[in-house]
């Protein structure tokens, strides 16, 4: 009897339990692949809707003729596609990928679904620096981009420094510090706008709403380089970020230094947020929305890649809705995402309180 008890197999090491775990992992993997495939299809459909439909419809053959330069297309379709529809669709995709990946990364780091670059002040840091350069210094183009990067980086340094404690970076403290910094920087933006002339103030306000209407191909090229470099690096750190999500002690115990992982991820997020904000302005709620939506699609698992695709779908469709949902009214994409994101935030807060 004693010998039997001594050689009892722990429950977690029993063959039936091991097979259950393996089966659960296989099911999660299949669901993940299906969700990613579905999101890719949704993005492709969103791109088709944004580039071909609207008040000026472009046929599929005309689309390929214009894109490949293989024939004449009448009626101004080439100008509409290459100077309006296509750049906005491509910029919306890049901005959505950048913001979606950034939001999911922040939520993993802070272990809180309410964390995102706009809630924690990174977006407002980029906006305040860019608006100051645009209005007070009279800068444009590269100067605004550099200013947005510097502003976002300063907020990131402040987040890491002010939220640090003896046991590492406290997630709750990081959120509180980010909210305080965001409020302070919002006041800075208002002060800059108050001292600007009417033309500059109007230009800054259009930019602050988040808009794809004035995006150019050189700006798209810059955003493409940043997204193609930073997002794969974020995906490569996903495993370490998931360990950090389990807690600093657990992460440190398996060799993933929480401070180093957060600093590396935060640097990539700063780059993505600053580049996106400098090109499109602060598009509200996309970084915040994408992570929770992806998590629900995946049955509770977080995924930076899925959140990036959700962000792309949201921005492209929101830009199309803003352009054509109301006759004779062209709403900036940031207004549409704000109108959708605010109720979602209230719903999520209600769910958090109930749980």
Gross geometry: globular
Low-pLDDT segments: 1-7
Strand order, sheet with most strands: 1-2
What's the β-strand tally?
Answer: 2
Distance between the terminal alpha carbons, to the nearest Å?
45 Å
**Relative helix content:** over 70%
Question: Helices and strands: which structural class?
Answer: mainly alpha
Task: Provide an overview of this structure.
The protein has 355 residues and is mainly α. Helices cover 75% and strands 1% of the residues. The protein has helices at 2-6, 15-52, 60-68, 77-110, 122-135, 142-162, 171-194, 198-208, 217-236, 238-245, 248-253, 258-280, 286-297, 304-324, 333-354; strands at residues 164-165, 168-169. It has a two-stranded antiparallel sheet with strand order 1-2. A hairpin with a 2-residue loop joins strand 1 and strand 2 (168-169). Helix 4 crosses helix 10, helix 4 (77-110) runs antiparallel to helix 12 and helix 9 runs antiparallel to helix 12 (258-280). It is globular and about 65 Å long.
Features:
mainly alpha; two-stranded antiparallel ribbon; disordered N terminus
Quick summary:
The chain is an all-alpha fold.
Task: Summarize the SSE layout with pairings.
Layout: H1 2-6, H2 15-52, H3 60-68, H4 77-110, H5 122-135, H6 142-162, E1 164-165, E2 168-169, H7 171-194, H8 198-208, H9 217-236, H10 238-245, H11 248-253, H12 258-280, H13 286-297, H14 304-324, H15 333-354
Antiparallel strand pairs: 1-2
Helix pairs in contact: 2-4, 2-14, 3-4, 4-9, 4-10, 4-12, 4-13, 4-14, 5-6, 5-7, 5-8, 5-12, 6-7, 6-12, 9-12, 13-14, 14-15
